[in-house]
Amino acid sequence: MVVWMRTCSRILTLTSCNTLFTRSIFILVDKQSPSCLCKGLRVLNLPVPFFPKRPMSMYQGKVSSSQDNGTVCVIDMRSDTVTKPTPAMRRAMAEAEVGDDVYGEDPTVNALQQKASELFGMEAALFVPTGTMGNFCSIMAHCWERGSEMLLGDCAHIFIYEQGGSAQLGGIHPRTIRNKPDGTFDLGEVESKIRTSDPHLPITRLICVENTQNICGGRVLPLSFLKELRSLADRHKLAIHMDGARLMNAAVALNVPPRGILQYCDSVSMCLSKGLGAPVGSVIGGKKDFIERCVRLRKVLGGGMRQSGVLAAAGLLAITDGVARLHQDHDNARTIAEGIHSLDPSVLQIDLSTVQSNIIVFHLVSHSVTPDQFCEMLNTYDPSDKLDENIRVPMYPMDVGSGIRCVTHHHITADDAKLVLKKFRVVVDKVAAMAGKSAENQAT
Predict the structure, then answer these.
(1) 69 contact partners, CB below 8 Å, separation of at least 6
(2) Cβ distance 85 to 279 under 8 Å?
């Protein structure tokens, strides 16, 4: 007898057969996908388990690559993190001049850091492997004393998607402020939550903002809000850190240089591997003594890399060539959003005023399918669609709220945007027909 148990993404087997046989099954499970496992079990004439589908998440799942009919056209809108380096980036990486960056001797990393500090209008910058590390190093550098507190939005990426690292590893207490739909805060709420000398309470040291605000739909923080927040922070001697994963999208949307945004912040962490298209990395910016602390923190977190100029070379192109074409991503997002807005409002609804950068969030109002099912329909080939191409458009429901998010990036062209809308029309018509049929059944 074989007993099947699902644990995370693996299948474990308990069997009365001999140990050697059991080991062979474990090897099969560890190295193959569930579909390959099922094929192997059929060959062995063993029962095939049922694999229930889990709800999709923005940070889980893979794009289907099976070809049911002819050429598959996959327009991947899960995130701008799916971008691959351009041919120019690959050449620059192959030819990069390198040294030991832990000794500060990698000329390409140094060039990237110098270029980034000028872009930010800050004294210094530091290349780190990931955005999460960039944010964590920055928070720790500001909250040097263990038990300090930071204020941040309840929809912040730092709060929701970075595993609570500031508390888990840094001993920093996060206290949330309600994000308004536009990504800003009520400044009165911010001020009411600042804590100082009471020995029962943590001491507030830092305010974190996110620009563009991901969960709020890629909203761009107004400069007027940042200016008022800076004034509040100065009154209470607090630092401001910006999670600027998509800082350059915000700068393009506002038509201002990044330094025009960051003049109100003490530090920033900007991602190179989202819309800017580099394969790896983020850059932290701030004052020299702040960056010196971040260097120490990067090292203890395992982020001190050696000949990392190979990666920084792509980053240098990202903050020049990558920035120059971000407006195309915004234009394509607007085209798709307007197309969604024109579809049956009994199925989908979208507020066009929320589409300010390369992120689109729309809402499924029909109860005929769930958001997961709707996304699966967008990413599935159906011969009844009668489309010229087998179009698949992967995207995921938001983990927070009721929206479905899709993101444009440099692999999505204006022609791709038209194909996306073709697929949307077909799927929306299907859902509307399902709703109509359900209504007829209820009437009879």
Answers:
(1) 381, 383, 390
(2) yes
Separation of alpha carbons 7 and 347, rounded Å: 35
Pairing of strands 359-364, 348-349: antiparallel
Q: Closest by alpha carbon to 130, among 280, 286, 322?
A: 280
Contact 402, 337 (CB under 8 A): no
Place of tokens 């990202």: 318
Handedness of CA 105, 109, 111, 114 (dihedral sign): negative
pTM: 0.83
Q: Which two tokens stand for residue 198?
A: 């009471």
Other beta carbons within 10 Å of 60: 12
Contact 70, 390 (CB under 8 A): yes
Q: Are 422 and 387 in contact (CB under 8 A)?
A: yes
Taking phi first (over 0 means left), then psi (-120 to 50 degrees means alpha), and beta for anything else, what does residue 53 get? beta
Confidence of residue 402 (pLDDT cuts 50, 70, 90): confident
For 33-86, write each residue's pLDDT tens digit.
444 444 444 445 554 443 334 444 454 444 544 444 557 899 999 999 999 999
252-266 pLDDT, tens digit per residue, is: 999 999 999 999 999
Residue 157, both tokens: 């990426």
